[in-house]
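Pasting two entries for a bug report.
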Amino acid sequence: MKKVLVLMSTYNGEKYFSAQIESILTQKNVDVKLLIRDDGSTDETINIINIISAKYTNKISVIIGQNLGYEKSFLELLLNAKDADFFAFADQDDVWDSDKLLIAIEKLNKFQQAPALYYSNVRVTNAQLQYSHELEDKGYDKKACKLLNSGAMGCTIVLNKSLLEILQKYHPQEKWPHDYWIMTVALYVGAVYYDPSSHMSYRQHAKNATGGDIKLKHRLNKLIQGLKGYYKNRWSSLAFELLNGFSEDISPGDKLILECFRDYQKNISYKINLLVRNNITKNNLIKDFFLKLSILLNKA
């Protein structure tokens, strides 16, 4: 059986995470181990982990750390990951189907030794795991401008050892959400497989660090925050990080787009290039307007 190391960051998760750990460690036809980094919990999380660890001998390892926030906590886990064939990320409050990891591994095996990442759709549920809707992804890996549209649900990501080794070569200077960072790197240096089927229950409740935002007002708030983000040099900063860490692994065509984003503020030809390219798009008229405006204002 293939060895899988699941990476989980916990923070005051006493209410839900026991069910999640059970669903991870009882995965079918894979040899699973769990590496947990606790991000400074103040509730009973650590005690509950110790109780579960006694049940699953040698299956759980724990790093007890100070509170860094979920972005840095997951990146710390990434840097400490080793000794497995595949690596997966888990939130503390979901519940996985028993074949979630096996399905991901079967898809990733098609890429053999090439760096590759798998991600999938999810079933959104309420706190009692009652079905709400599917959180469909649009398959961003198929879009021409990968920098703008990368994204994956971190709790669905599984990557092979080749991609992990590339990711561990470079620690990003800025604080990026782990799933956004990992997905973007994978798109530029390797292969990505999107599974439109759901293999887990994505539990939504009042204390999610991030989430599917079932209520309309939450979705509107996310849209407003997203539009504000167009004016924070997000993509030029990300382009700098990708070129700084992985330039030798990126194709010439993708490298040109990254160089345009990195340097357009001081190179008018790069700015024009970004403004006239049809593939510099968010595939949404409103978002495209703000994107082009942010480029004009040197804020992209």
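Entry 2 (this is the one that rendered wrong in the viewer):
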Amino acid sequence: MDLKSVLTTDTVNLHLKGKTKEEIIDEMLDILVKAGKVSDKKSAHDCVLERERKMSTGMKHGIAIPHGKTDSVTDLVACIGISDKPVDFDSLDQEPCRIFIMTLSPVNKTGPHLQFLAEVSLLFKSADKRQQILSTQDKAEVIKILTE
């Protein structure tokens, strides 16, 4: 999986405004809709919330990876959002999140989805990378940090 093929500066937001899990998910979906990656926001929204009901996608170290499978995308799509303020996301470590990576994939394709989630979770084991992402004001730099 080449993250550079999935992430573009159009799919990065350095200043998410949402204050709740629901608002962050909605804002992330807006990024994907605006970038022309999602055809039906409501359908995508429903699948992400359904996934959240099963188990929160708030991980550790201030990172959440909301995701889902939907017919409103034809290939795997992803976006990254950074929140200026920490947001409670029901994380595994009970800490609020500031880094959000959303991915959506077609219902009938499992491989790329799992590969993307595995690759992204490996990247964030580095405290240095997390801090670089939180510090930068350059969308292209966020992608560079993630793909190095």
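Dev reply: Rendering is fixed now. As a check, the viewer should reflect this: The CA atoms of residues 1 and 116 lie 7 Å apart.
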